[in-house]
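Ticket #4471: structure export looks truncated?
Reporter: QA, pipeline team
Priority: medium

Steps to reproduce: submit the single chain below to the structure queue and open the exported record.
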Amino acid sequence: MKERNQTLGPPDHLTAMSEYQIKLEAIGEYQEALRYKTLNENLCNSLLGLLGQLSRHYEKNGMALPQEVSRIMEKTSEVLDTRIKASDLARSPVHTS
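Actual output as written to the record:
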């Protein structure tokens, strides 16, 4: 009977199972990241809607919008714009010349 060389590594079925488990974990982490991304985008959209209503309220009552509210609106818009651009880039085909 031929002995297995211990320096070659684990048997193939163990290696395959480990690779499979690693891939499953990576898929799970990716799915969780997508859920957080969606949640974050929904929160940003809700915040922008709320800030828009607040802005209209101030305008309707002839009051100046507080600088902090304006800053938050701008920052939230920037975050969403960055995410949209990143999403568009991820969907665009890769051109190699």
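Status: closed, not a bug. The export was complete when the record was re-opened. Leaving a note from the reviewer for reference: Helices lie at 12-60, 67-91.
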